[in-house]
Amino acid sequence: EVSVLPTLPTLQASFEYDTPVAGQDNKVHVSGKFSEDVTENTFVAVTFYDVSSAINTISYTSTFDCTGSACKIKAGDPFTQTVDVQIPGNKDTYLMMVEVSNSNTDILGCTFTLLTL
């Protein structure tokens, strides 16, 4: 039996500085819409993977400002969240994965790109 993975909303991600430089601080702006409400402890993770070994090189997170039952982002509402990152500097190419997960580690949305420095 073949398992079918659920379809996740695709996120949009962009760097504050258009040309990432190894070792430089930067910001990743993440936006999109979810099919469910954002709940407490929902976070954005930006992870850089070494493409030669698929090992997680470094990961950065930012938690949504959502406390108690008064969350600001409901299903279908657009959102923008910013994550402060430092561009890794020990390789020329990384797979950058951006995902939004909740406290149950359910992935609400994701995107990825190949980043060549």
Which homologous superfamily in CATH is the superfamily?
Immunoglobulins
Care to count the β-strands? 7
Cα Rg: 15 Å
Based on secondary structure, the structural category is mainly beta
Low-confidence stretches: none
Terminal Cα span = 41 Å
Per DSSP, the total helix count is 0
Largest sheet: 4 strands, antiparallel
Protein name: 4111_t:CDS:1
InterPro entries: Ig_E-set (IPR014756)
Written account of the structure:
- The chain has a four-stranded antiparallel sheet with strand order 4-3-6-7, with no helix packed on it. Strands 1-2-5 form a three-stranded antiparallel sheet, with no helix packed on it.
- The chain has one domain: Immunoglobulin-like.
- It is mainly beta and 117 residues long.
- The protein has no helices and seven strands.
List the helices and strands and how they pair.
Layout: E1 12-15, E2 25-33, E3 43-50, E4 55-63, E5 78-86, E6 93-101, E7 107-116
